[in-house]
Amino acid sequence: MNNPITRVGILGAASYAAGELMKLLYNHPNVEITVLVSETFKDEEVLKHHAFLRDVCGREFDHIPEDLCLDGVMDRCDVIFMSKPHKKFANGYMKQLRSADKKVIDLSGDYRLKNADLYPEYYDFSHEDPELLQKFVYGLPEIRREEIADAQFVANPGCYPTSAVLGLAPALEVGLVKNEGIVIDSISGASGAGKSPRADLMVIDLGDNIRTYGTGTHQHTPEIEQELSSISGSTVQVLFSPHVGGFKTGLSSTLYCPLTRKGITKKEVVDLYRTRYDDEPFVRVYEDRSPEIRDVVGTNFCDIGFIVDSRTNTLVVISTIDNTIKGAGGQAVQNFNLMCGYPEYTALPYEGVIKKRLVTY
Fold first, then answer.
1. Where are the beta strands (DSSP E) in 143-270?
2. Are strands 210-212 and 238-245 parallel, antiparallel or unpaired?
3. What pLDDT, on the 0 to 100 scale, is given for residue 207?
4. From the CB of residue 270, how many other CB atoms can be counted at a distance below 10 Å?
5. Interacting residues of 227 by C-beta distance below 8 A, sequence separation 6+
6. Which of 193, 243, 285, 303 has the most CB atoms at less than 10 Å from its CB?
């Protein structure tokens, strides 16, 4: 028996993340993309903003009325992806989607945090619907798979938190590292800043360069601490220092973690992580070397490697992802598959290989 077709809409369809999302969804055997909305570029051709869709998507962006009424969108969709900037989702869209009983995957940060009081400090707005924060499931499949499968609303994680949380989860789950003194040093390609023009992201300024920004104040800090604290069962505090580099895609996080006891070997760490992630189709654990950005660009994998520095009794974890795929569109498709009952790897890079491996083992 064939699986049913799911009608999909994307709001904010001109964004980089939406572009990666469309690349994947147009390959999904059970998806029909029925709505592509861009308020900024309404009535323009989709191809103008996503040239890779030539001969694939010959249509214009759909139009939302000035009053932002989504009736015409909701009637044509079963699942809606939101790829809007922060603050946009909480401005009235969600109230309409909630009343229509639609499944929603939000790629912004508007529903990632459970504590509404953190939004003014880290996102510079007061949340209009704090009660709904508790109904959103944090969409990191390797940590919350069962919850995602039963969810109506999923908050797709940020790219930095994806690499950091997956890199730290196994060690925190068993108390291998301390809950404080953790330093997260991350570098992302320029695509992580989105599509809006910015002088500091021009090639003349960013090419052959690395820039530090938002150390200790970045909006992903409370997201990382929230999820790591939930995993640990007690409060986890981190120093998060992000950087942007002169390349387009990819993200690497180096995580410095004080160990809770001396004498821990690299083999112990590798065995722990392999046991934890053995059944995870999109996590690869390295023993022979540290993963690099080029290993994961164009994939939905999170690659994780280790250094144990016995002199300072520190575990160093290197966690790499493609920030536009596992850090955005690919993870959104992974969540979509779980929510709709499709195999988790459907339409994601290396689908055939992953399917064979899971069936074999």
1. 153-155, 182-188, 210-212, 238-245, 251-258
2. antiparallel
3. 67
4. 18
5. 138, 140, 143, 157, 161, 165
6. 303
Contacts of 49 (CB under 8 A, 6+ apart): 14, 19, 38, 41
Eight-state DSSP code of residue 235: -
- Identify the CA nearest to 304 among candidates 252, 268, 227: 252
Which element (helix H / strand E) includes 52? Answer: none
Q: Can you tell me whether residue 8 is helix, strand or coil?
A: strand
Question: What span, in angstroms and rounded, lies between the C-alpha atoms of 85 and 107?
Answer: 9
How far apart are alpha carbons 190 and 207 in whole angstroms?
Answer: 10
Residue tagged active-site, from 159, 257, 302, 340: 159
The CATH T-level fold of domain 159-324 is Dihydrodipicolinate Reductase; domain 2 (3.30.360)
The answer to whether residues 186 and 77 touch, using CB atoms and an 8 Å cutoff, is no
**At 136, which amino acid appears?**
F
151-174 pLDDT per residue, tens: 999 999 999 999 999 999 999 999
Instruction: Return the ∠ at Cα 19 (arms to 241 and 50), rounded to 5°.
Output: 125
Give the pLDDT of residue 94.
Answer: 86
Return the SS3 of 108: coil
Q: Is residue 57 among the annotated active site residues?
A: no
Contact yes or no for 139/331 (Cβ under 8 A)? yes
The domain made up of 6-157+326-360 is a member of CATH 1.20.1440.20: no
Q: In angstroms, how far is the first alpha carbon of the chain from the final one?
A: 25
- For the four alpha carbons of 251, 305, 311 and 238, in that order, the dihedral sign comes to positive
Boundaries of every domain in the chain = 6-157+326-360, 159-324
Q: Looking at residues 192-197, what average pLDDT do you find? A: 47
pLDDT tens-digit series, residues 199-242:
444 454 656 888 899 999 999 999 999 999 999 999 999 999 99
Cβ neighbours of residue 186 closer than 8 Å, sequence gap 6 or more: 160, 163, 164, 240, 241, 242, 243, 251, 252, 253, 254
Residue 173's Cβ-count burial label (10 Å; 0-12, 13-18, 19+) is middle
Task: Read off the pTM.
Answer: 0.93
